[in-house]
Write a structure and sequence with these properties.
Layout (H helix, E strand, L loop, with lengths): L4 H7 L4 H29 L2 H24 L6 H23 L11 H35 L2 H37 L3 H39 L7 H7 L6 H4 L1 H8 L2 H53 L9 H14 L1
Helix pairs in contact: 1-2, 2-3, 2-4, 3-4, 5-11, 6-7, 6-8, 6-10, 6-11, 8-11, 10-11
Length: 338
């Protein structure tokens, strides 16, 4: 993207792409220590350190954003880049300080370690690249086929939609180290129970939220906090909200990571990325911004289905257990109230 920034800016008729893509390499470099530290503490199941790293990252961006808004300088792509870089620096510094006592760097001396590390890292990198392309495909298509103003409405809906991404990341942060540990210890019966409960509780938690959004909750929240400023984004958000019902299945990508199936993850993400590009290409031209939202749901459906089938091939899942969380939750409440 950095090397093709001039071509991309010309192709999408947006000069700001030059500014954004020029800043991309340093922003990525500044983010690496934070990402490494988060993965380390996920492996160690150290939620306190994870919280502190994310606190440094988000609180710093919050402070800088508040300052920008108060000084009326929160208006340009450059200000957004500055905010993200400041947060990346703070998060990476916190991650570096917290990770140092737990890390000993050395060159892998055993050939078996290289055989495990290189293929896993290679396919995990390809999957991450494909996933980023998938997440950005809708915005690119809206920008290319429609207009910047329509992209702004769509972008607003996508920003509020990030609450579902946050929910997925929160569950994944808890599930990944547990899956990896149970897999390494070959405790597959417990692993099966963990996966089924993860899917069940996520579905039971997301279903009422999605129902609330579809029955007018989105309009209620938007109008309460923002008046009628984002009215055009409400129907787009309502389409995107259906992804919430697919979270129990897309979370199985995290399970596959814990199982060490990087090749499978790449295949799943590549397939859903191709579906995302094709569906965006046709749906955006036919239905404008709502078409892009539909493409996001379709890609999530494909990703969730393929990931769940891949996990089921490793650990047999009983789909009837998707509602087991209701009984477990009821028993927990009765125990706490008795």
């Amino acid at each position: 993207a950095f090397l093709l920034r001039s071509s991309l800016a010309h192709g999408f008729h947006e000069a700001k792409y030059l500014v954004v893509l020029t800043a991309l390499p340093p922003l990525c470099l500044l983010t690496i220590p934070r990402t490494y530290a988060l993965k380390l503490f996920q492996m160690l199941i150290r939620t306190r350190e994870i919280f502190l790293i994310n606190l440094a990252f988000f609180s710093t961006m919050g402070v800088v954003t508040a300052y920008r808004i108060s000084t009326h300088t929160f208006m340009t792509a450059e200000s957004m880049i500055e905010i993200n870089m400041t947060g990346a620096i703070a998060g990476s510094l916190m991650g570096f300080v917290l990770a140092i006592p737990h890390v000993r760097f050395r060159w892998p001396s055993q050939a078996s370690m290289w055989r495990d590390m290189l293929p896993f890292g290679f396919f995990q990198g390809l999957a991450t690249t494909s996933n980023v392309m998938q997440q950005r495909a809708d915005g690119f298509m809206v920008q290319y086929f429609l207009s910047t103003s329509i992209l702004a409405d769509y972008g607003t809906a996508k920003r509020f939609f990030k609450v579902f991404d946050a929910a997925r990341d929160a569950v994944g942060t808890i599930a990944y180290p547990a899956v990896a540990r149970l897999t390494a210890q070959q405790r597959f019966a417990e692993l099966k129970t963990l996966i089924e409960k993860m899917m069940s509780f996520t579905l039971i938690g997301m279903a009422p939220i999605v129902l609330f959004c579809e029955l007018g909750g989105t309009a209620l929240m938007f109008h309460t906090f923002f008046g009628h400023k984002y009215d055009t984004s409400i129907p787009i958000f309502n389409i995107l909200a259906f992804v919430g019902l697919l979270l129990p299945f897309t979370l199985n990508l995290t399970v596959l990571t814990g199982l060490g199936k990087s090749r499978t993850i790449f295949k799943v993400v590549l397939a859903s990325s191709v579906v995302s590009l094709l569906s965006n290409y046709f749906l955006v031209q036919s239905f404008n911004a709502p078409g892009a939202a539909c493409a996001v749901v379709i890609a999530a459906l494909v990703s969730g289905a393929l990931a769940t089938m891949a996990v089921n091939a490793e650990v047999t899942i009983e789909y009837s257990s998707l509602l087991r969380g209701i009984g477990d939750g009821w028993r927990y409440l009765r125990k706490r109230l008795s």
